[in-house]
Structures are given as structure tokens and as C-alpha cells.
Amino acid sequence: MALDPAEQHLRHVEKDVLIPKIMREKARERCSEQVQDFTKCCKESGVLMVVKCRKENSALKECLTSYYNDPAFYEECKMEYLKEREEFRKTGIPAKKRIQKLPTSM
């Protein structure tokens, strides 16, 4: 039985693991300023980072949580996942291994 590439049904693992993974990655990109601030603070503070970086940690958590709780962001990530899954089902090649060929001459 072949899987329909355009099929939209999501398995439990896709809903609860794979799509949230995409959400985390995209949220970290979108909150890159807060991630950098927190990372810098941690590197400068060493062992005392728990105490000294509370403000940066709170800002990072707030930014990430705003994305995690946004239904539109979930839908965006879900559509991205479905597109990747559909392409995989058509080609059999995972997105990580797919290399987009660019023209060599212009």
C-alpha cells in the first residue's frame, strides 16, 4: 500500500514531536536577539549565571513562549512539515539530503 504524498492526516508522533521540533527551531531563529543576549550573559557569568542572567532568561522564555502558544505559528510549521513530508513521499529523499541545483552559468 503506497502512501498518498498529498495526504494531510497527521500521526501522533508528527503532532507531538516533529512539528513542535520545527516550532522550536523557527522560534529560536526568530528570537535570535534574546538567544544571543542570554548566551552572552551565561558565558560572562560562569557559575553565577543562574542568578545574574534572570532578566535575559525571562526575555528569552517570553519570546519563545509567545511563538509556542500562537496557533498561526503552529499552522505555519505544520504546513512546512506537510510540504517536506509530501516531497519525501514523492522522491524518497529526506529534506536534509536534498540539494537544490543552481545554474552554473548566467
List the helices and strands and how they pair.
Elements: H1 12-30, H2 32-45, H3 49-52, H4 54-68, H5 71-91
Helix pairs in contact: 1-4, 1-5, 2-4
Mind explaining what this structure looks like?
By secondary structure, the chain is mainly α. The protein has a domain at 46-91. It is built from 5 helices and no strands. It has helices at 12-30, 32-45, 49-52, 54-68, 71-91. Helix 1 (12-30) packs across helix 4 (54-68) and helix 1 (12-30) crosses helix 5. The longest helix has 21 residues, at 71-91. The N and C termini lie far apart (44 Å). 9% of the residues are buried. This is COX assembly mitochondrial protein.
How would you summarize what this structure contains?
This protein is mostly helical.
Q: Rounded to an integer, what's the Rg over CA atoms?
A: 19 Å
Q: Which percent range fits the helix content?
A: 55-70%
From the N-terminal CA to the C-terminal CA, the straight-line distance is 44 Å
Helix count?
5
The proportion of strand residues reads under 5%
Order of helices and strands: HHHHH
Total number of beta strands: 0
Q: Pick out the low-confidence regions.
A: none
Bulk shape = elongated
InterPro entries: Cyt_c_biogenesis_Cmc1-like (IPR013892)
Family: Belongs to the CMC family.
GO cellular component, one term: mitochondrion
Keywords: Disulfide bond, Mitochondrion
